[in-house]
Amino acid sequence: MLEIQLDKVINDNRISFHISAKAPKIYALQGASGIGKTTCLNMIAGIQAPDVGYVRIHQRTLVDISNQVMIPIRDRRIGYLFQDYQLFPHMTIRQNITFMTAWNDHIEALTEALKITHILDAYPIRCSGGEKQRAALARALSTKPDLLLLDEPFSSLDDISKQESMTLVQQIFETWRIPIIFVTHSQQEAQQLAHEVITIA
Prior knowledge:
By secondary structure, this protein is an alpha/beta fold. The protein is 30% helix and 27% strand. The strands form two sheets. Strands 2-1-4-5-6 form a five-stranded antiparallel sheet, with helices on one face. A hairpin with a 2-residue loop joins strand 1 and strand 2. It comes from Staphylococcus americanisciuri. Keywords: ATP-binding, Nucleotide-binding, Transport. GO terms for molecular function: ATP binding. This is ATP-binding cassette domain-containing protein.
């Protein structure tokens, strides 16, 4: 179950975001540039606080402003793939993936499924855009999250890599059965991948 109701005013613009679902879905979050799509993801993840609202996943309340509940980021069990991936350049891919947890059988299976075992000892600068994305995705999934957030995950990829990445996200959803929220400017991406499109106006 996923319940989100968040409101925040930024520069006289009110951002309002709402989800209520009993079963996992893939959501596409759309809206004009600068409208606050990334802010919505940041509020869910705990990077920014909403003015009003709540976030509940599987009966766990992560945020409830009216009751002064704000669970720390590390305890939210939310995976977040940032738009620029935010891999640490001084760390190997292996070290980036295990930044939040120790190497284990789950992470080993992840790296095999994402086809990045050959770059584990490489540094991000030596990796392609698609490899960096899969490494960042492995890091986001390393702690077995209850929710996955993707900020424009396909925007910097070529057409072939984009299609491969969209297929990968679909496979992750089918395997993990967790809700996924991704930001996109593309109607085609939203229509192909999302079960529901949410527009921030």
